[in-house]
Amino acid sequence: VPLSMSNGKLPFPSGEGALCIIRGTSPRGDHGHVVVGAISADGRSIDLIHDPFPNGPEPMLSTSVDPIWAAFYVPLPE
């Protein structure tokens, strides 16, 4: 389930440590990039924890543009 982010924050608090996929802008060019994140202690911010395409000391996502969405895996009802 993707959730739109505003000012780099989730629209409502979520459980600390929950893993998600974050979509933002690549630091390597003007195109989209996704990384793995985890919900921070405040429940609305996200710590970036893994870049599937690391490139040295660059940040995982561009720091000049806020992330666009966070996607979470949720169980489907039976």
Radius of gyration: 13 Å
Biggest sheet statistics:
5 strands, antiparallel
Encode the helix/strand succession as letters. EEEEE
Range of helix content: under 10%
Span between termini = 17 Å
- The count of β-strands is 5
User: Shape, please?
Assistant: globular
Compact description:
The protein is an all-beta fold. Helices cover 0% and strands 33% of the residues.
Describe this structure in words.
This protein has 78 residues and is mainly β. The chain has one domain. It is 0% helix and 33% strand. It is built from no helices and 5 strands. It has a 5-stranded antiparallel β-sheet, with no helix packed on it. The chain is globular, with a radius of gyration of 13 Å. The two termini are 17 Å apart. This is Peptidase C51 domain-containing protein. It comes from Sphaeroforma arctica JP610.
SSE arrangement:
Layout: E1 2-4, E2 19-25, E3 32-39, E4 46-50, E5 69-71
Antiparallel strand pairs: 1-5, 2-3, 2-5, 3-4
For the structure shown, list the relevant keywords.
mainly beta, 5-stranded antiparallel sheet, globular, Peptidase C51 domain-containing protein
